[in-house]
What does this fold into?
Amino acid sequence: MKIAFLLHNGYAIGGTVRVTLNLAGALAERHDVEIVSMMRHREKPRFVTPPGVRLVPLVDMREDGPDAALPEFSEPARDFPVEDTRHHQYSRLVDLRVREYLKGCTADIVIGTRPGINVYLARFGPPGALRIAQEHLRHDAHEKPLRGVLARHYRTLDALVTITEADAATYQAKMRLPGVPVIAVPNIVPATDVTPSDGSAKVIAAAGRLAKGKRFDLLLDAFRQVSDKQPDWRLRIYGGGAQQERLQRQIDRLELAGRATLMGPHSPIEPEFAKASLLVSASDAESFGMTLVEAMRCGVPVVSTDCPLGPAEIIRDGVNGRLVPMGDARALAEAMLALIDDESGRREMAAAALESARRYDPGPIVDRYELLFDDLGASRGRRNWQRTRARYVASLMRRRRALIRRVRRWRAARWLRDLLRGPSPARSRA
It folds into this structure.
């Protein structure tokens, strides 16, 4: 079976890039797999491409690259939806190259990995292939105009895959997709060859984009309380982003220099996690929670805000980690201090974290995808009928609403005409 993934930029660092590579690599052990990168911005990808997986770039974004001289390179995209926040990164050249690729695509299954790319797939995907949209962001994280665009295009695909059960339920409740099954399949987080943490290091780790929604500011406020009671413990924050300077100023203001450190991006991250005894996430939202599972793979218990949607499906509170209310620095600090003070409990939780992370092994998740592929192939006729019937019913409803509007306008016009004419002579004589 030939499988193609459509990816925004397979040469960059990012959560979607990492999980797509993990899934593609696992599927490549049984299938012919390629990853089609909409663009590239450097010579070699940041992450290692798994054995058996082809990485195919469509447009070279480098200023000295062969595509920069083409006129379409500088024109804005027309096919990529403007409602997608990445629209400014797309060009007419990407539109045309995607169309060309999909027109000649011989894959049995094509999987899109972000909203705008899924629109490409819906509009231009090979009709003989199974076309599957993956959602790595939450439904409610999309702005309303984008949700409207996706609702129109997703109903023409074969399936929608989310990474949490909660998000699948949200799509099922809020986006009517007749004939399009919406299912949840978690990300693959493969086991690491790094020696697990022994839990002795007085280090708390955190990782992610230094973005507002990750709430590293809240984490620093919480760690200030931890540091007052446990001054020997250190906080290491891995990642880069727009909030770096602001967070450094906060570290200085809280007098945490030397105790809280912005470590910058690290790849792979697992060797750094293995040097810690706790991992903490203070996010306001997590579509999945990749860093939580990566830390658990390293035998590190995790503390996370109980934010939508992923953490609650990863963490069993009090067993393999702790869940605390969102936006509550005191609760976050208390959870960290409780685990710092209880070394034996922390080690038990670390062992449970290591064991529970096996849920994200490649084998079972590949099996779920293969079962999905088989089910979609077998149910294609029935699902097409469901879509056709839904379109027919929708058409009847539109006609009914149009008729009702016309009747109401006619009645209103007749009432106004009678009002302007005044009472009839017959009524006057009466």
Notes: The first helix runs from residue 15 to 27. The mean pLDDT is 94. The chain has three domains: 2-184, 203-360, 380-429.
